[in-house]
Write a sequence for this structure.
């Protein structure tokens, strides 16, 4: 779709635009066979947002191959919108996913010449322009590789300049790169444009943070950027939300979580966090997103909603994002423990 073409009608007001990989996870089952599942961190987050009722625009093109059609169907089924509805001839990205005894995933990627990388900053800017209610743009994971920095970094800068809330999920995948120094630099450049950073404790180590305490590493990273907020995921130990003024809060599950695998857990966490953030009056009325203020009650709502979203995901095989009703039901039955740190 070029600038001269009219944009189609949208089923609901677009509040979030996402940009990054959409791929097929080939998940190794117990018998050694590979089972194809629609995935990719940004794709998962896109679907998770839409399933929780947020109008979401996915900016990357998809392939016209069988897997591309599967990915497109996954977008349409949840009510998200493709900014580029016409498929491209390039093939779909693939990831081979291995699971350890605890269900923790590791990945090998096949990403050369693929459909979801056929993007550029100007096209993404044009696709965002018509949406007057667009408040948040989000990217991360494979979009942060150094080779793709010229595509995504100018777009992030432009979205920050026009006043949108920029979210970057580090979600590092070192297996995909040969030059770790260039990769770290590219990730840090993207994080430098964010209002909200999401990282895991493993991400901090991969970024080269050396403190034994994830909280200390997270505070160091936050101080090195212009971000106001940082969300830190800690696996079974829950998650934290940090403000650059030094305040931090922690939430962890109190109800049992039977883990099938962790595929998509961080993506559903991020989506849950953004869903809850969009619902807070302070976010809706903020004149400037870089001055967003959240009360402790706001933080509790946002962080607990994110944790519950991730908990529901990990109890399914593959990334199966929960609905808003499912998250609210879990919170009503058993809220995570929450405290200031």
């Amino acid at each position: 779709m070029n600038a001269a073409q009219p944009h189609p009608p949208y089923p609901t007001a677009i509040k979030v635009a996402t940009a990054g990989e959409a791929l097929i996870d080939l998940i190794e089952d117990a018998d050694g066979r590979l089972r194809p599942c629609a995935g990719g961190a940004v794709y998962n987050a896109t679907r998770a947002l839409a399933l929780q009722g947020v109008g979401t625009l996915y900016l990357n093109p998809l392939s016209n191959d069988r897997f591309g059609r599967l990915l497109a169907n996954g977008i349409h089924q949840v009510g998200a919108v493709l900014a580029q509805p016409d498929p491209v001839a390039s093939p779909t990205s693939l990831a081979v996913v291995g699971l350890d005894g605890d269900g923790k995933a590791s990945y090998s990627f096949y990403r050369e010449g693929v459909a979801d990388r056929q993007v550029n900053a100007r096209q993404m800017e044009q696709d965002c322009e018509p949406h007057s209610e667009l408040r948040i743009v989000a990217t991360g994971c494979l979009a942060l590789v150094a080779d793709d920095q010229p595509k995504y970094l100018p777009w992030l800068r432009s979205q920050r300049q026009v006043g949108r809330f920029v979210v970057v999920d580090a979600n590092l995948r070192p297996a995909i790169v040969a030059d770790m120094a260039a990769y770290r630099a590219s990730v840090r450049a993207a994080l430098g444009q964010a209002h909200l950073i999401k990282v895991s404790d493993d991400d901090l180590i991969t970024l080269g943070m050396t403190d034994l305490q994830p909280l200390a590493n997270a505070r160091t990273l936050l101080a090195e950027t212009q971000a106001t907020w940082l969300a830190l995921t800690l696996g079974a130990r829950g998650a934290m939300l940090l403000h650059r003024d030094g305040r931090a809060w922690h939430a962890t599950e109190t109800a049992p979580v039977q883990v099938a695998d962790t595929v998509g857990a961080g993506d559903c966490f991020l989506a849950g966090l953004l869903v809850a953030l969009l619902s807070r009056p302070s976010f809706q009325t903020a004149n400037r997103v870089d001055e967003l203020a959240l009360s402790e009650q706001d933080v509790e709502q946002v962080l607990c909603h994110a944790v519950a979203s991730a908990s529901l995901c990990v109890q399914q095989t593959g990334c199966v994002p929960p609905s808003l009703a499912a998250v609210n039901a879990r919170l009503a039955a058993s809220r995570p423990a929450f405290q200031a740190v």
Q: What stands out?
A: The first strand starts at residue 16 and ends at 19. Residues 1-9 have pLDDT under 50 and may be disordered. The chain has one domain: 16-340.
